[in-house]
Amino acid sequence: MNRHLGIVVIIPLLISAPAQAAVLAARDILDNLKDHQEKVKTIEAEFTMSVFGVGDMTIKQKGRYTFSAPGQVILEFTEPNQNVVKVNGDKVEISINGGPFSPAPQSETSAGMNSDIYYYHFLKQFHLEIDEKDQPAQSELVKVTGYHKNAEGNIADEKTVRNVKAVEFLYNKDQGLVAQINFIGFETMPPMELKMTYESKGGIRVPKKMFARIITPGGDIASAMVLENKKVETR
Length: 235
Prior knowledge:
Elements: H1 5-10, H2 26-39, E1 40-54, E2 57-68, E3 72-79, E4 83-88, E5 91-96, E6 102-103, H3 106-109, H4 120-123, E7 126-130, E8 141-148, E9 164-172, E10 177-185, E11 192-201, E12 204-216, E13 219-234
Antiparallel strand pairs: 1-2, 1-13, 2-3, 3-4, 4-5, 5-6, 7-8, 8-9, 9-10, 10-11, 11-12, 12-13
């Protein structure tokens, strides 16, 4: 059993998305996310996190979260262990119990999502389309599907794609936020589901609660993170 599993699970949780929209296309959503992402300068928060599905255990952790534009995230775990996760774009490093920083496996498999709190940089890697045939019953939600795209903007050959080959996400057009993302990976990456809620702080919506569920042959592993946002600076 990996006692650092809580750190591993939290890396994909750094996410969200917003904006105003009437008639939406996939391009509109990306433009909205970019606009929101560029408004955020810093976020400082305290967090609590619980990880479920690791045998019969529930792992509880606390710490501090800091985001600095354009793409640096620092997670300082203070309880039960003193660990630090440092994210800069695709690069992820971990320090265990005050030890030296070393690269984390997620930096090789995250497909650029680690420090992208509003998912613009992550989602723009995909050829996105509004799913006209399978829209949610809730009128405020829009379902969008996407496959990795090549330089020409078409669907890329699977051999050139990193682990996340496709996504499905629900965009709340009333809030201007991405409410849920489902990841479809290759054999080396199990399916993952993310759900998030937000709060208004400093004149902008920022992540408040995040739930992640990883589906494995041995059972699901889930984590729930709650942020107490202390300081938000915008541009």
